[in-house]
């Protein structure tokens, strides 16, 4: 999976060049009784965005979705509940990504690796 084993290998300060917005999904009842999903901005932060290599895509293909990117961010309390995290959507320069999985990278609440798939509209 990830090649970085330590914080030095990650070098977040040098590599976090992308400004992303994390959006939270809210379902509301529509006029006809159906549900409508609306997204509201939850947080804005710097991130490292990496397209996945084919071998990594094969490893994650068991998740029942086509994953395309790894996004690394600093840990925030919004990542505490994994069930909420998979409802988030990430926006970067007009592109949208659906969160498939969020992993505490070193198990110490410092960095979160987000596995995401790009939403094509």
List the helices and strands and how they pair.
Blueprint: H1 7-10, H2 12-15, E1 18-29, E2 35-51, H3 54-60, E3 69-74, H4 82-85, E4 89-92, E5 95-104, E6 111-119
Antiparallel strand pairs: 1-2, 1-4, 2-3, 3-6, 4-5, 5-6
Helix tally?
Answer: 4
How many individual β-strands? Answer: 6
What's the helix-strand series? HHEEHEHEEE
**Structural class based on helices, strands and sheet pairing:** alpha+beta
**How would you sum up the global shape?**
elongated
Notes on the protein architecture:
The protein is built from 4 helices and 6 strands; from the N terminus they run H-H-E-E-H-E-H-E-E-E. The protein has a 6-stranded antiparallel barrel with strand order 1-2-3-6-5-4. The protein has a single domain (15-119), classed as Beta Barrel (Thrombin, subunit H), CATH 2.40.10. Helix content is 16%, strand content 48%. The protein has 121 residues and is α+β, with helices and mostly antiparallel strands.
What key attributes describe this structure?
121 residues, alpha+beta, Thrombin, subunit H
Outline of the structure:
This protein has 121 residues and is α+β, with helices and mostly antiparallel strands. It has one domain (15-119): Beta Barrel (Thrombin, subunit H). The protein is built from 4 helices and 6 strands; from the N terminus they run ααββαβαβββ.
């Amino acid at each position: 999976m990830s090649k970085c084993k330590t914080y030095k290998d990650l070098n977040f300060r040098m590599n976090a060049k992308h400004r992303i917005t994390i959006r939270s999904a809210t379902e509301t009842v529509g006029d006809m009784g159906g549900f409508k999903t609306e997204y509201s901005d939850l947080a804005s932060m710097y991130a490292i965005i990496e397209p996945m290599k084919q071998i990594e895509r094969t490893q994650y293909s068991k998740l029942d979705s086509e994953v395309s990117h790894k996004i690394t961010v600093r840990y925030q309390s919004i990542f505490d509940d994994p069930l909420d995290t998979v409802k988030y959507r990430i926006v970067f320069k007009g592109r949208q990504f659906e969160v498939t999985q969020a992993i505490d990278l070193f198990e110490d609440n410092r960095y979160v690796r987000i596995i995401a798939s790009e939403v094509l509209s």
